[in-house]
Amino acid sequence: MEKNLPFILEIKEELAGYWKKINLEIDESKAEIVIDYYNSRIKVMNFTEIFEKTSGVLKIVAKVEKIGKIIVYAPLENIKELETCGYIEEGIIKGYYAGKDCHVFSSYPEASRGVSSNKGKEDLIIENCLRKVTVSQRKLKKPDGPRKIENIRKQRKNIGFPEEYRPKPAVQADASSMATLYRQEFKFYPTPLHMKSYLLKTMDSNVLYFLVEKQGTILSLASAEMDLTNKCAEITDCLTISSERGKGLIKELIKALEKELSNRGFKSSYTLCRASSPGINTAFASLGYAYTGRLVNNCKIGNGFEDMNIWCKVLKKNRSKQRIN
């Protein structure tokens, strides 16, 4: 591609220190991109026409902004084009496009960024998660009689939250306490959850927050970033304070989010969770999510970049359309 080929970058939204959302146009080709400064990456969410032209501009932007990774979300029909431009498929988000799969491709302007330092450990975590789920399913299928199997299913369904623990959708009045908790628990995080103003803005747009509290104190949080066009949601921002871990609060919050998403007509949900954390991976595996790939050095958490595992699930349709209040 000619470097002097004219292109237009139109800034649509910006959060200082975190990202710029930009519309890119070059000839007849268009793309929606996010320059993610905090994570030193560019994300391409949608593109049309010839990707080769867009790819050339992305390389220029990555060099100017000193970006280490470029990620492209694409449907099946664009796979060949991305491969031709040197992009590598890292995973799939099932049902992302209103039921159709999304293929996640990456390129690494900074070569060292594409090398995982914990691959062996993270592979073992996935193997253990899937093994646990398989063992659990086998126990459920043992020929111990239909009545016993039904009792086990009822017990699992009714586990729910511990007594005195109150789950609920977060409201604006919760934002200050939520920001304080996120600030205390997440010293480094890819989004500014420690800012009350950010939480309020996202609550009013496309993010559904659920929390668990006891005697007015928030113990656990999780959210769903909703894509209203594609009816797909990302489960994210999962947190439980250290003294309450091991009680299954996150799993119950995920189930509550799934129920509400189903009530709103969403077709699928997915998550990108820390590949080095056995607990959160096990939680999604046990809830019926499928492991579909790993994004190498994808997010800056703690002291450096971390790999993120992709887990996906097709949501069941709920007959009842009543929402949780």
TrEMBL record:
Domain of life: Archaea
Gene3D superfamilies the UniProt entry points to: 3.40.630.30
Tagged with keyword Lipid metabolism: no
N-acetyltransferase domain span: 163-313
SUPFAM superfamilies: Acyl-CoA N-acyltransferases (Nat)
One Gene Ontology molecular-function label: N-acetyltransferase activity
Keywords, ordered alphabetically: Acyltransferase, Transferase
Group of enzyme by EC: transferase
Pfam families, per the entry: Acetyltransf_1
EC number(s) stated in the UniProt entry for this protein: 2.3.1.-
CDD domains, per database record: NAT_SF
Family matches, as NCBIfam families: GNAT_ablB
Protein name: Beta-lysine acetyltransferase
Species of origin: Methanosarcina barkeri 227
